[in-house]
Amino acid sequence: MRITELLTKDTIAMDLSSSDKNGVIDELVHQLDKAGKLSDVPSFKEAIHNRESQSTTGIGEGIAIPHAKVSAVKSPAIAFGKSKAGVDYQSLDMQPAHLFFMIAAPEGGAQTHLDALAKLSGILMDENVREKLINASSPEEVLQIIDAADDEATKEEEEEAEAQQNEADAAAASTGASAEDNEPYVLAVTACPTGIAHTYMARDALKKQAEKMGVKIKVETNGSSGIKNHLTEHDIEKASGIIVAADVHVETDRFDGKNVVEVPVADGIKRPEELINTALDTSRRPFVARGDRSGSNKEENEEKLSPGKAFYKHLMNGVSNMLPLVIAGGILMAIVFIIGPNSFDPKSAEHNAFAEQLWNIGKNSAFALIIPVLAGFIARSIADKPGFAAGLVGGMLAISGDSGFIGGIIAGFLAGYLTQGIKYMTRKLPQSLEGLKPTLIYPLLSVAITGLLMIYVFNPPASWLNHLLLNGLNGLSGSNIMLLGLVIGAMMAIDMGGPFNKAAYVFATAALTEGNAAPITAAMVGGMIPPLAIATAMLIFRKKFTKEQRGSIVPNYVMGASFITEGAIPFAAADPIRVIPSMMIGSGVGGAIALALGSRINAPHGGIFVIATTDFSHILQTLLALVVGTLVSALIYGFLKPKLTENEIEASKAMDE
Predict the structure, then answer these.
(1) Which residue among 61, 198, 359, 548 is the one 20 to 30 A from 121 at the CA level?
(2) Which of 49, 113, 192, 618 is catalytic?
(3) Options 67, 98, 314, 618, the catalytic residue
(4) Given CA atoms 96, 100, 105, 109 in this order, what sign does their dihedral have?
(5) CA 617, CA 614: separation in Å to the nearest integer?
(6) In this structure, are residues 82 and 24 in contact, taking their beta carbons and an 8 Å threshold?
(7) Rounded distance, CA 310 to CA 303, Å?
C-alpha cells in the first residue's frame, strides 16, 4: 500500500495557525474528522494525549508524529500540517517542530496499512524530503513529494531484501570463516508501545548513522505488524554488539554472551552514534541471559536505576497488572449496590440471585486475586518468569496471614530478590542440570523459602502494621478525616498519573479491599477535579485561552467525569508553575469536603457514573465537594494565567475566520 492512499488532499491542513502543541493536535484532529476518518473525536483526541503523556512524539529534526491506534478511527489515515515559524512541541532535541503527521490507526489495522505507516516514519528521516515538505505550497505538491519518496523507499527496501537474501545464501553455503566475519557488524532491535512510529524512526536513524560511520548494521523491528527483519543465529554469532532500543519487552536471552546495549527507543532516534560506538566497544562485560543472571550483571547491560527508581519500577509493574482486577471487580460491586445495598447477601430480605453471582465474581474472585497478582508481577519484574510463582504464593500467604497489601508488596520483593539469589547460587551447577533449573530448582526453592519466610518472619509484623493502619483509618473523624481527604486529594493532582498519583491510588485501593471507603472517595474526587477545573477555567476566563485550547472543554469535562486525571496533563506540561499548585489546592479541598460530609464511594473507578450507585444517600454531598473543588482550582488557575500574547490572539482570530 502506498502512503498517499492514507495521506490524501482531504487530510492535509497545510499551514497551521497554532502556536502551541495542543493547538496543533486540535487542528490535525479536526482535519481527520472533517475528512470523515473518525467515529469518536473525543476518544481519539484522548488517546493522542495519553500517548503524549507517555513520551513526546516530537522526535526531533523538526518532526512530530502524534499517533493513536484506537477503535475511534473509522479507517486508517494520516493528517499533515506544517509551520514554517515552528511550534514548541517539547521535542527530544528541544528544537521547534515544523512538520506534523498525525497517524490514525484503527484497532486491528491491516498489515498493509501498518507497513505504509512504517514507511512514512522512515521517509521523514531524509533531510531532503523534510526540506521539500517545508517549502511545499499546496496539498498536491505535498503528495508529489511523498509519492516520490515512497518510490525511493520501496526501491531501497527491495535492494536491501535482495542483499540480505544473498548474504543468507552465502552464509548457508559457507563452511568456514571469511574476511567479512572480521568486519565491524552491529545488530539492533527497535520497539515502541504502539509499534507504529518510534520503532521505525529509531531503525532509520541507526541505519543512516551506521552508513555515515562505515559500519554494517542490521535492524529488527518489533512493530504492530509483527517482527520484521528477524535477527538470525548467524547474525548474532558474528555481531560485534547489539543495540536494543525498546520501550516494551523484547526477547533478549538469544543475545547471551554478546555486547548488548539496552536503552529506551527514543535514544535510538536522538543518539544513534553514541549507541553504535558503545555496541562496538568489545571491552564491555558480556550480556548474560535473564534466565540465569544476577542483578549485578543485569545492571551492566541496562541503564542503571537508583534504588528508589528500581523500587518504583517494580511496584508499578505489579500495580499496572492488578488494576484491571481492581476496576472490573469494583464496578461489578457497584452494580450490585444499584440492585440493593444487601442484595448479595442470601440472609437479607433484599437478596437477589443475580446480584449474589456478580458479588462472587467481583468481590470474592477479582478482588481475591488482587494481592497475589500484585506480588507475582513485582517478583516477575525483578527476576523475570522464575520469580512469578513464588510471588503468587507469597501474595496468597499475605492474604491468609492477614497482612493485606503491605504483606503483598513485601512478598513480591522478597520472592523477586530471593529468586535472583537462587539463580546466582546455582549458576555453576553441572550443565546436565540446566534443564531442571526453570522447571524444578527455581520454583521449588523460591516457593518454599518465600512461603516459610512469609509465614514465620514477615506476616506477623506486617499483619500488625496492617491492622494498626486500618484501625487508625476507621477511627478517623472530624478534622483528622478532613486532613486525610486533603492529603490524598492533593496527591492525585501533583503529577496526574505519575508516582504521587499512583501512590495515593494504591493506598486508597488497599483500604477499599479491607472495607474502608474513605481513602478511595478522596482519591476519586481529587482525581476528577483537574480536568473539570481546566474546562471550567476556559469557560470563566474565555479570553485567556486560544480557540484551539477551548476546543478541549468538552473532552476535559468527559475525562473528569470519568475519573481520568490525565486529561489535564497537556495544560500542566505547558504551564506547570500555575497549573499544578492550583489543581492541588482544589483537589485537596474537594477530598477534604467529601470526607467531612460523610461521602463513601465503594468502587475504585468510574467517576460520576459510580458515585450515585455506591452511596446514593450522600450523592449531593459528593457532588458539592466536586463542584467546590473544581471552582477553587478553576478560579486560582484563571487568575494566575496571563493574558494571551498578540501572536496568540492573531492565531486565534485566524482560526475563527
Answers:
(1) 548
(2) 192
(3) 67
(4) negative
(5) 9
(6) no
(7) 11
User: What DSSP letter does each residue of 282-318 carry, written as one string?
Assistant: TTSPPP--GGG--HHHHHHHB----HHHHHHHHHHHH
Angle, CA of 587, 588 and 589, to the nearest 5° = 90
- What is the rounded CA–CA span in Å between residue 177 and residue 199? 33
Residue 462 cell numbers, joined = 506486617
Return the C-alpha torsion angle 634, 636, 637, 641, nearest 10.
130
**Residue 146 contacts residue 123 (beta carbons within 8 Å):** yes
Joined together, the cell numbers standing for residue 299 give: 545492571
DSSP state of 38: B
Sheet holding 185-191, edge to edge: 226-228, 216-223, 185-191, 241-246, 260-263
How many residues does this entry show for the chain? 657
Amino acid present at 80: F
Task: Specify whether 67 is catalytic.
Answer: yes
Catalytic status, residue 30 = no
Q: Could you please report the per-residue DSSP string of 522-591?
A: HHHHHHHHHHHHHHHHHHHTGGGS-HHHHTTHHHHHHHHHTT-GGGGHHHHHH-HHHHHHHHHHHHHHHH
Determine whether 446 is exposed, middle or buried from the number of CB atoms within 10 Å of its CB (0-12, 13-18, 19+): buried
Q: What is the mean pLDDT of each run of 10 residues along the chain (657 residues)?
A: 84 87 91 91 87 75 83 88 86 79 76 61 78 89 88 70 58 48 81 70 85 89 74 87 83 86 84 90 80 43 59 76 76 75 83 90 86 91 88 93 86 93 85 75 93 93 80 64 88 74 75 78 90 92 81 82 74 81 93 89 74 69 92 93 71 51
Burial 530-566 (b: 16+ CB within 10 A, else e): bbbbbbbbbeebeebbbbbbbbbbebbbbbbbbbbbb
Cα 172 to Cα 169, 231, 373, distances in angstroms: 5, 15, 46
C-alpha cell at 141: 505538491
Distance CA 96, CA 2 (A): 29
> Which helix (H) or strand (E) element contains residue 216?
strand 216-223
